[in-house]
Amino acid sequence: MGRIWSLFFLLVPILGTIAILAAPYYDHWLPKDVSADGYQVDHLFNFILWITGIVFIGTEVALFWFMWKYDGERNDQPAKYTHGSHHLEIIWTLLPAVTLLFMAIYQMNAWAEHKIKKPNVPPLAEVTARQFEWRIRYPGPDGKFDTPDDIYDVNLLVVPVDEVVLINLRSMDVLHSFFLPNLRVKQDALPGRVIPVWFRAVEQGDYDLVCAELCGWGHYKMKGRLRVVSREEYEAHLQKLYREQEATQ
Amino acid sequence: MSATVAEHGHVERAPSPVLDFLRTYVFSLDHKVIGIQFLFSTLFWLVIGGLLALGIRWQLAWPWTPLPVLGKLLFASEGGQMPPEFYTMLFTMHASIMIFFVVIPILAGAFGNFLIPLMIGAEDMAFPVLNMLSYWFMWPAFIAMIASFFVEGGAAAAGWTAYPPLSGVQAAAPASGPGQTLWLWGVIFVGISSMLGSVNYMTTIIQMRAPGMTLFRMPMTIWGMFITAILQAFALPVLTAALFMLLLDRTLGTGFFLPEGVLINNAEVGAGGGQPLLWQHLFWFYSHPAVYIMILPAMGMVSDIVSTFARKPLFGYKPMVFAIAGIAGLGFIVWGHHMFMSGMNPYLGLTFMLSTIMIALPSAVKTFNWLATIWGGRIQFTAAMLFALGFVSMFIIGGLSGIFMAATPVDIMIHDTYYIVAHFHYVLFGGTMLAVFGGIHYWFPKMFGRMMNEFWGKVHFVLTFIFLNGVFYPMHLVGAAGFPRRLADPYHYEAFAHLLPINQFMSVSAILLGLSQLIFFANLFYSLFWGPRVGRNPWKANSLEWTAPSPPGHGNFDFQPIVYRGPYEYSSPEVDEDYYPQVQPPPEKKEQAAQEEPAS
Question: What is the structure's pLDDT at B590?
Fold first, then answer.
């Protein structure tokens, strides 16, 4: 029976690896990245996947092999009477320690790019989350917020392609989270705080803006869209919004 | 009237059978009875929590289709369809019940209570009354949670993390009313129960070990329980304080967690001047150590089971102890990794990233030592051993996937997605629950003096192992695709619409996983009454509990246990058998002991 059990456990690394390898082909994996900096996230993800993948296969296969080889019904050798090995303990402490430390240092830059090194550009828009919608405010022709020419919209954020976009993120009520899966952007919105979020989209198109922090019963439907367009289209869009706004006032 | 009472009291010398029953089985001070009370209560809650999980899976696989049978009863006005606010209650209560009423109390309350005195050679716990109270404080908590489903607005729905302002303002959601208040009281009572247990376990382990039971001769299960108790004692006061602060914010209008200018339904709420992030810091300062509270005792139990059935000493006993201590120590400085995306200072994120990545180290050391323990052994594939090996296999996945979210830039993508859900279910279901099933198979003979059925135990193992992977493994894939947690219907997003079929696969697996547990419950209850009777040591194991009668009577041991060695002396060359119990005198002392025996 020991053989059958060890083979049963061998299914874990085999099926586990196949599932991970097949997933990108069925689009059950990191979604398409349309940002300038998202590759850093994807690169780190894949880097960690390689290291953990090797450890995963190595340890699971070792588990299988020991179960296969040391099955009490077949192994006629007496069990090894050993309480451990100082050398082995040192090796398998130091080796992962160095690897982990390297991983920790290796990723610091990417974090800084995404969250610390705020770009020196004026904010393109202010996004205020509330139950259950995204309120968008552009500064208008004068480039300043809180002036009469501010332009308002809901659930549609239009940004120019190939430009660094800085967004001021706020919340009116509870916590929300501004999640752009295709741009590898996520940031919680906090009431009482203005949090800067930045990204640079490199491909035109419409993308999902997801609320990723539970905000109440309607959390699931707090859906926005990010529209990435050329500079001209962006300006035309703002002018159109401005005209519509003026007409209704 | 008073005369008859006095007379009655004098006449009846023997206690009334009713009182006797109550003292023995209900308000018992015996740690074993309390442990078994915890076991059956937590298993009952496991069923409730599991059914809530199936409700979640139903909605994710067949969104807005009427729930079979229950839908008609619960949501008659919606035509049997689950309303979205009910979905938010489902995952909130599933997590709350599984964490506070199943995993924590089944490890510390059930196994901790039953095993600590037996494994260290004590008659009972240091504080039997506190021990009884720790069980009975669970009941107000149980009742608060059950009652919350029936109050206006329903049970709490702000997630088990209860982040304010959603949880702090009554008007923020239909369920943020009395249901949330009851939830807070429930968790406060669970906290009191855990604290009573924790004080008791620490005192018992420090003070009541049998002669010869030095700290480094304690089984790993006891180390796991001991360090868990320390974690509870240091972390719980913070949670309790936070829970009371939130309660005050909600009921008296204080402003600990609510900033100025929060507008809900266009009305300003709260006193202002507070900080929502403060709650997250306080909550995770407890709840991250709680993650280890939910795994360390399980690691201890697995170490004992693996060594017993490999018939080989535990590899690297002291490194294993230090690894548990290391996990616990580091566990106190990693809470911020739950808050990488919260708006906390991103520089702080870097320090928490470093400590979090390093906590993978002691976990890796433990895994290597388990593997080295079975290396060169003579493995007996009992049901308990299969569950323990299953734990090792699944913990590898759960441990490794944690490294992804520890990496702050990667966390940007996977935070609040199903990747996280996959990770903690591999640790808590693949890890802790498999260890619990293994522990039940392993210690059942000691608890009840009867064996569980091995064949059905293995059938249960195979089905559980297959279906748990069927439910949780694909969550890694959809999580990497950005599939968010806690959404009643994510499929209206363009990015997630194509993930419906794989969610249906997961849900079918979940239903089958649930059904497989019927085998376990049938085996458990059948064996309770009709399982074959066993002697003291059916597994030929070394630790002290196996020298007591099965089941042990009041006071546990019918002799004074004296400990001569550690608990893992399997296949020792000193003796002919492949086990060497902790109480067995060494050969040269045997004669001496034999001479002393008639005198005592």
Answer: 57
Delimit the CATH 1.20.210.10 region(s) of chain B.
30-259+274-288, 295-534
Nearest CB to B381; choose among A5, A172, A173: A5
- Residue B246 CA: distances (Å) to CA of A240, B121, B186, B491, B549: 46, 43, 13, 34, 49
Q: Tell me how far apart the terminal alpha carbons of chain A are, to the nearest angstrom.
A: 81
- Domain B30-259+274-288 in CATH 3.40.50.2300? The answer is no
Q: Which site among A82, A190, A220 would you substitute to test the B interface, given the most B Cβ atoms closer than 10 Å to its Cβ?
A: A220
Q: Nearest by CB to B310, which of A79, A181, A190?
A: A79
Task: Give tens-digit pLDDT for B496-551.
Answer: 999 999 999 999 999 999 999 999 999 999 999 999 999 999 999 999 999 999 99
User: B349 vs A115: CB contact, 8 Å cut-off?
Assistant: yes
H-assigned helices in B209-273: 220-251
Q: What is the pTM of this model?
A: 0.94
Cα B426 to Cα B390: distance, rounded to the nearest angstrom = 11
pLDDT (tens digit per residue) in B21-71: 887 778 889 999 999 999 999 999 999 999 999 999 999 999 999 888 888
Residue A92 contacts B, CB cutoff 8 Å: yes
3-state DSSP assignment of residue B598: helix
Pick the CATH number of B295-534 from 2.120.10.30, 3.40.228.10, 1.20.210.10, 3.40.50.11540: 1.20.210.10
Look up residue B415 and give its two tokens. 């935070």
User: B379, B306 in Cβ contact below 8 A?
Assistant: no
CA distances A183 to A39, A55, A114, A115, B349, Å, are 9, 30, 11, 14, 21
* Interface confidence (ipTM) of the complex: 0.96
